[in-house]
Design goal:
By secondary structure, the chain is mainly alpha-helical. The protein has 25 helices and 6 strands. The strands form 2 sheets. It has a 4-stranded mixed beta sheet with strand order 1-6-5-4. A two-stranded antiparallel ribbon has the order 2-3. A hairpin with a 5-residue loop joins strand 2 and strand 3.
């Protein structure tokens, strides 16, 4: 019986003969969309199973002990990470973006199944994060490893990872158009027929998978009863401004809390501090428990009492301003609870918490407008939806995703204009204040972020080690001119000579132009030394810290044709401008977003 490897080889030969590359990519997009959708369905079912078990035993008991559950879930994740996975949990979208920019779209096999275990434990036990990020991560890892198995090239592998992401999102929200737009906005794809059709097929495959396994069960059981009114435009503008500033708060709080948790070197201390902080917040604000879809649905139904649940402030909920204050409290503390969950070692995403925060803010703003005493009356459910769009547009920098996601959730486009107003204002405020998002900030600092700027994207995809040249003859400072000419100049095809000390550290350079006038003057051979001839290069390229954009800038600023590369002072070689530009042109030709 032939081995699996032999069968795979036979299949690949058959595929090369009978299926064109274009058709194969389209077929693969359907497959990865289905597998990513299946991963998303598995995540949802495991999480809801854990939640249902806990609700029967604890959450709805007379003792209301649910606030201790997050620390239990975080402990289980910690034990799995330490003894089974043996690798720290990375954030979903940033790890995928890093893979696309610097790792040729390669994701480890463990990233296929680890999110399916750690995310349900985190969210099922009440961690205040979402499932979208883990679903996308699992789907992307499945696509990456399947592509590697089938010998798919790097460009196509990257496209199929984006397809898997679209399939996962489409499966969770049952919103195929928003899923495609998310892949375009977040993964910086260009909308061409080469990318749109696979994304469309993957998105359809993902949503059909969701319908097959979950039926018509939707995250939001909501139908619009009130459409757009021109009189409400000023309030949508106010909401856009509010969600813009809330997005800035959300993002800054995220990085501030992660910075705080870095003080704790041991994961155990992070777990303890994070778990206690989440438990305290849950005791006073129960809607922070878990993902928060129940909270959003109750707000959409106009039932803010069910949305808020049982709190220490129940005796005061007859006062609408107490309700408004609690909603604003959820807006503020959702960002804290979510980040504390992730910083403490939990697994989850930020997209759904963003929606929860936006729904609370939108509903609170509508209640303020309706109860301020000026006779205004706006739809609280509409503002709840539009608040979600405003936060997504601001926090993720994905305004089109926000607009189409909410439009698909509501089953129509009656709110399209207010979604555009609020989403665009929020995005503009946040983008002009914070250049990068939660997903992209650290990658941008490392020079590993792909963007829609094609020139910058090509530079990001380039690797420094690919353009380093080492065929330069080194010389020592104590060499005399005669020895230099005999041992280096006569044997070199280059016109630049690095000067190295005994530890291979670079101390300067000598150019052929520096010695051309007197290199045949034998009287100077014994009396002139390299240390007298050498000088500093116009600039150094630092291997550990300089990205390709910085390298290109150094060539531009220095006007040099060759620059040395050093790693902690140790000489590694030179980069020439001609080779750099040649490599850039080749990458640009082969670049497919």
């Amino acid at each position: 019986m032939p081995s699996t490897k032999a069968l795979l080889k036979k299949f690949l030969k058959w595929r090369y003969k009978h299926i064109s590359n274009k058709t194969f990519v389209q077929l693969m997009s359907v497959v990865v969309g289905f597998l990513a959708g299946l991963a998303a369905v598995t995540l949802k079912n495991l999480t809801y199973f854990i939640q249902s078990l806990l609700e029967k035993g604890i959450v709805f008991s007379d003792y209301q002990l649910y606030f201790i559950l997050p620390i239990v879930g975080l402990t289980l994740v910690y034990l799995y990470t330490k003894f089974v996975n043996k690798h720290p949990i990375s954030q979903a979208i940033p790890s995928i973006l890093l893979s696309l920019s610097k790792q040729k779209g390669l994701l480890s096999v463990r990233k296929m199944y680890t999110p399916l275990l750690t995310a349900p434990l985190t969210v099922g036990f009440g961690g205040s994060v979402g499932l979208l990020g883990p679903a996308v991560k699992s789907g992307a890892a499945i696509s990456s490893n399947l592509s590697r198995l089938l010998h798919i090239d790097v460009k196509t592998r990257s496209l199929l990872i984006a397809c898997a992401s679209a399939g996962a999102i489409s499966s969770i929200f049952q919103s195929p158009i928003a899923a495609i737009i998310f892949a375009v906005e977040v993964f910086s794809l260009d909308l061409t027929m080469l990318s749109v059709l696979p994304l469309l097929l993957a998105s359809i495959s993902g949503v059909l998978t969701s319908y097959f396994f979950l039926g018509n069960e939707a995250l939001f059981n909501f139908s619009l009863t009130e459409g757009f009114s021109l009189n409400d435009v000023p309030f949508y503008i106010i909401l856009g401004i509010g969600t813009g500033f809330a997005s800035i708060y959300f993002t800054k709080m995220y990085f501030a809390i992660f910075k705080f948790f870095k003080r704790f070197r041991s994961p155990k201390y992070k777990l303890l501090v994070g778990g206690l902080a989440i438990g305290i917040m849950l005791y006073f604000i129960p809607p922070l428990y878990g993902e928060g879809f129940g909270f959003i649905n109750n707000l959409l139904d106009g039932n803010h009492l069910n949305a808020l649940g049982k709190t220490p402030f129940d005796a005061f909920l007859d006062n609408i301003w107490v309700v408004i204050a609690l909603l604003f409290g959820i807006t503020l503390f959702k960002a804290i609870a979510m980040t504390a969950t992730l910083a403490a070692g939990g697994a989850g995403g930020v997209f759904i918490p963003t929606m929860v925060m936006g729904s609370a803010l939108g509903n609170a703003v509508a209640k303020v407008i309706n109860n301020i005493g000026f006779g205004f009356n706006v739809s609280e459910s509409n503002f709840t939806l539009i608040g979600m769009a405003g936060l997504i547009a601001g926090v993720i920098h994905a305004p089109l995703t926000a607009i189409f996601l909410i439009a698909e959730i509501t089953g129509g486009y009656e709110l399209f204009i207010p979604l555009m107003i609020t989403g665009s204002i929020s995005f503009l405020i946040t983008k002009n204040t914070l250049e990068h998002t939660i997903y992209t900030k650290e990658l941008a600092q490392k020079g590993a972020l792909l963007t829609h700027n094609k020139d910058q994207a090509v530079l990001t995809l380039m690797e420094l080690e690919d353009v380093i040249e080492t065929n330069f003859k080194a010389v020592l400072p104590e060499m005399d001119l005669g020895e230099m000419l005999m041992k280096s100049v006569s044997k070199s095809t280059r016109n630049i000579f690095p000067v190295l000390d005994g530890d291979n550290k670079m101390v300067g350079v000598v150019l052929l132009d520096d010695i051309r006038e007197f290199m045949f003057n034998t009287e100077l051979y014994d009396t002139t030394f390299v240390k007298d001839l050498m000088h500093a290069p116009p600039e150094y390229i630092f291997y550990d810290s300089d990205n390709m954009k910085q390298v290109m800038q150094k060539f531009q600023d220095s006007g040099a044709w060759n620059l040395p590369v050093v790693k902690e002072g140790i000489y590694m070689g030179f980069v020439s401008k001609s080779k750099l530009l040649t490599a850039y042109r080749r990458k640009l030709i082969n670049y497919t977003p």
